[in-house]
Design a protein that fits this description.
Oligomer: single chain
Number of strands: 2
Distance between the termini: 72 Å
Number of helices: 5
Radius of gyration: 29 Å
Largest sheet: 2 strands, antiparallel
Length: 140
């Protein structure tokens, strides 16, 4: 029974609960960033590059393509053909950069809010100020 009580104390601590909430929110936030990249950013980037480029379909076939399998990313992946999917890597890299940028901005805003909410430093007591003035006068 001691082990169960110890585990309960561990699981109910605030840090474990906070971590669980952070992981859940992080998973949902990752889906939002994926949608932002795939549905908003990538179409704009591909249009700026002069075409309707879908980066996930940029790949190099490394193996033999069986007959009857179309040369598309999804079909080759399902057929088990080894492919060098550099376009997918580009998309995931853009996801990471956007996610890091959003997290950076969020931390920046939270830090500003904390600085505003922080109590001002307590003023130095008058006797300390007077003693410092006396010390400075004696040094001269």
């Amino acid at each position: 029974m001691a082990v169960l009580e110890e585990f309960r104390d561990f699981a109910v601590k605030g840090n474990v609960i906070d971590l669980a909430v952070g992981v859940i929110i992080g998973g949902a936030f990752g889906k939002i960033v994926d949608s932002l990249v795939n549905d908003i950013v990538m179409p704009v980037v591909s249009t700026l590059l002069g075409g309707h480029i879908d980066f996930t379909n940029l790949f190099i076939v490394l193996g033999h393509i069986p007959e009857g399998v179309p040369k598309t990313f999804d079909a080759l992946k399902k057929a088990g053909v080894p492919i060098f999917a550099y376009g997918n890597f580009i998309t995931i890299s853009i996801n990471f950069i956007l996610l890091a940028l959003v997290i950076f901005q969020m931390v920046k805003v939270v830090n500003k809010i904390r600085m505003v909410d922080a109590a001002p430093a307590p003023s130095t007591p008058e006797d300390i100020v007077l003693l410092r003035e006396i010390r400075n006068s004696l040094k001269k």
